[in-house]
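Morning!

This is the sequence you dropped in the shared folder:
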Amino acid sequence: MRLLSYNIHKGIGGADRRYNFQRIIDVIESQNPDLICLQEVDRHVRRSRYDDQPRILANYFKPAASLYQMNVHLKSGGYGNLILSRWPLRSSHRISLTLRTRKPRGALLAVVDTPEGPLHLICWHLGLGQRERWWQVRRLLRHHCYREAADLPTLIVGDFNDWRNVLANGHLADQQFRQITRPASRFRSFPAVLPVSSLDKAFARGPILVKRAHVVRTKLARQASDHLPLVIDFHLDDAVSPSV
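The structure's back. Tokens below.
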């Protein structure tokens, strides 16, 4: 099974600052993922020509299930997270990760009915402050919507904004999550033109066997967004190696 996690920056290129949503579609299609987890997906916003990006992506990839969460509301439309799945969802939730006066943030939670069994999938976009991110991790792990599927194999992916790579410790480690995207030097994804930071990460818990995880560094990917996409090939398996 293949998962792609990608901050698409509303379809605006990181280098040329041009809106070209077809580039995003082409980058995703080139990887042929079964599960697509996106951040910064616009809907009805002027800068992206008022496109309904979740609908465009759903119409193009024709997933069995899709789940959208608009976190940031603008004068016209807004943007947020999106999951597209080749397989049906047994359940889904949208939860807020907004801390007081900070920019609105959120997480999508879904139990995916994969051919290898149920997978608990979480797609989120964390805040810019370190204390804010710690609070957001705690909120997710204590949330009743997370806990109702916490016994299933679980993947957490997205834009962690974790410049210092510290979130692997603390609450995620306490809950037996292991970081797939390490060492950070192998997973630099931002800025796309000359990546120096590993912001796009993935954590797994339970019987998940990761076959390969990598950042897509094609010429098109460097042009399409200010982030590079992360791709993970994995299976649900009882014998999981602790390292990638």
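Headline: Residues 2-236 form a domain with the Deoxyribonuclease I; Chain A fold (CATH 3.60.10.10).

More detail when I'm at my desk.
O.
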